[in-house]
Amino acid sequence: MSSRPSDVPLPEPPGAGHLPPEEFQRWYGGWDPLSPSSIAEFMAGFDRPWWVIGGWSIEAFTGIQRDHDDMDISILSSDAEAFRVFLGDRWTPWNVDDGWFRPFDHRFAEVRPDSQLWVRRDARSPWVLDVPFTPDTDGRWTNKRHPAHTEDLDDVTWVAPDGLRYAKPEVSLMFKAAQSRPKDRVDAENTLPRLDPTARAWLSAAVGRIDPHHPWVMR
């Protein structure tokens, strides 16, 4: 695991209100995220689909190193309970949602399909993994920003030379388009020229369904 620099912005649960790093850690604890070199061992034995998303998926495609705030993977929302059972007593997952930040255990087993989990070993340990759920429709990947848009999982992910499955770059950029933070714009600058025509068309159509006037639609 690699330590998170103290000046790196931290992901925040509902109500955190953009706390400075020292206040965030006082209330919620710090992060020591997994990386592509350690995530396969962590997930060994989980027999449902999972794939790396976010910045690590962009770096895997472009080959351009970038800073990473955390390690994000996704699983289908219908596999949430299987993932909780898989973690068992070895790890403690918390459900992060718009209205709450609470343990994901037998007491609070219901989670919304567009929420996410944070995972750490126990209350005295740092968070190691962020797991946004992907809604699914009859086992198909479903776009949480446009639920009518569904795909076979193999069509929106790819297996990189390191053996890990990643979100395709156009899929990662679609989600980044909604946030358009400085790092998201850098990712777009590095990724868009490397997309083939099919991927560019997919991205333009997907972003266009959400925001027809988004600058990435024209590009």
Offer a few descriptive terms.
219 residues; alpha+beta; Beta Polymerase, domain 2; 2 domains; six-stranded mixed beta sheet; three-stranded antiparallel beta sheet; globular; disordered N terminus
Task: Describe the protein's architecture and organization.
- The protein folds into 2 domains: 21-167, Beta Polymerase, domain 2, CATH 3.30.460; 169-219, no CATH class.
- The protein is built from 9 helices and 11 strands.
- It has helices at residues 21-28, 36-43, 55-62, 80-87, 153-156, 169-179, 182-191, 197-210, 215-218, and strands at residues 50-52, 73-76, 92-96, 101-103, 116-120, 127-134, 136-137, 140-142, 150-151, 157-159, 165-167.
- The strands form 3 sheets. It has a 6-stranded mixed sheet with strand order 1-2-6-5-3-4, covered by helices on one side. Strands 7-8-9 form a 3-stranded antiparallel sheet. Strands 10-11 form a two-stranded antiparallel sheet.
- The protein is globular, with a radius of gyration of 17 Å.
- Mean pLDDT is 89; it is low at 1-9.
